[in-house]
Amino acid sequence: DEATGAMSHGFVYLTGGKKWVYYDEVTGIMQYGERYIDGGWYYLTPGTGAVDYEWAWIPGKNKWVYYDPVTGRMVYGGVLIDGKPYYLDKQTGARWSKSQIVSKLVATARSYYGKHPDCPGALAANGGLLCPFGPCMSYVWYVFHQAGLDVFLCDGAKTGWPHHNYDWYRTRGRVNMKAQVGDIAFYKFPETAWSKNYSASHAGIVVRVDNGGVWVADAINDGIGEHYSYSCILGYAHPYYG
Fold first, then answer.
1. How many CA atoms lie within 13 A of 93 on its CB side?
2. pTM for this one?
3. Helices 98-110 & 136-146 angle (0-180, nearest 10)
4. Do 139 and 119 meet the contact criterion of CB atoms below 8 Å apart?
5. Are 94 and 65 in contact (CB under 8 A)?
6. What are the distances in angstroms from CA 90 to CA 11, 96, 204?
7. Using CA atoms, how far apart are residues 92 and 158, in angstroms rounded to an integer?
8. What is the pLDDT of residue 61?
């Protein structure tokens, strides 16, 4: 201690170096590298001991992780960082790749084929807006939510209206006719009278693209299943997966 000379333990802010460091609770020796402290992981910069913040590459473990910019504690799950969505593994904190995110989304979408989860009820319970004309967008939201990937759907927006989501991506230049697995397909069925007042009336998740064909997982009259992309396609929205 700068005033008493007593040995410090735990986190200490060094005014001279303008940094937070950590001293072992028993020995008082400054710590370095990855350390599990009070239920969370921190990275103490080798050489200086300074608590690291934000993105960091962990040598030897081949992973990018993210430390809270205020506390320095490792972050997990779906998060927005500098306006962009990321998924950080809930066990290791490792940043997931686009292929990992898409694989998780598609597997979750397919796990509900032939089943009848109350997607609108779950959306309402989470404070979302319900569309009274069908559950298609509620199902899309439900899949993202159950996969823990909410942040990748319109930055976490909660609405069962297809046009809300379609307009969000369209105004950001994220919609075109080139489908990729993991995209959100938006449609406007001409025979649907109510849809004339909205930019989109149906939505699904692209789960397969091969030989020019596109298949989507969606909730429609015959329940939740996989269907060939409909002719009334408006476009395929590309979430920010990485």
1. 21
2. 0.90
3. 120
4. yes
5. yes
6. 25, 10, 27
7. 28
8. 85
